[in-house]
UniProtKB/TrEMBL annotation:
Residue ranges occupied by any GCVT N-terminal domain in the UniProt entry: 155-240
Organism for this UniProt entry: Armadillidium nasatum
One term under GO cellular component: mitochondrial matrix
One term of GO molecular function: dimethylglycine dehydrogenase activity
The FAD dependent oxidoreductase central domain, residue ranges: 98-149
Name of the featured protein: Dimethylglycine dehydrogenase, mitochondrial
Amino acid sequence: MVGNAKLEIFKSSFGKELFPSEIDRMMPHLEKVMEVIPAFSSANVQTIVNGPITYTPDLLPLIGPSLLPNMWLAVGFGYGIIHGGGVGKYLADWIQRGEPPQDLIECDPGRFSSWTSDSYVFAKSRESYGMNNAIGYPHEERFAGRPTTRVTPAYQKQIERGANMVCDAGWEHPGWFAEPGQKPEYKPSFGRTNWHSAVKREWETVTQKVGLIDLSPFGKFFLEGDQAPEFVDYVTANRSEILVYKYCDFIQIDTNLIFLLYH
């Protein structure tokens, strides 16, 4: 399979149609393939298939309830029906029992919002498509379409102070700060990374002295009313009386005691 991304505007009547072959647009890519696979240069091209494929900005599908009652989503699968069996069972269990059988928060349809502009979506989708066969690293960062509109007033100052920025839920925030004389470069690795000593230093600072942590990507929930403590006790594994006007980590659970989210 050889191809590149191109933005197309679809009509509402578009179904299973294909686009024109556009062989001229494909030639630079076909020539590269011929260099890598010489036998391909003498092969006869039987068919050219040029059609749409669905990609989300982060390459993961949208699975779960939509904002409309009784409307469920299972879309954005870059590899088509290969995921159908597992996703179908997952949604069927969720619809039947009212809760997901396991945590798939990474595929939550609500993870994208107004900050995902058209330019961001297209840039990230092209990046995702181009990384199909790339090596994936732990704590991987991808930079197309960034920074988003979700930057705090401290964003530029953080960069000036040596911050290596990471992106969570669209928010740009420091992953770590470079030491004096060190460049805050992104160097992914399967072993010890270039930010290991920086994180150790920052951990020692906030545990032994005083430090500030940018928690902009964290969700914030304000609960009010007489039944707020009862509700918190029901959905979390912490005691609500210690949460009044305070910050506290807690584990959220469902009725079957499946651990879901860490806040």
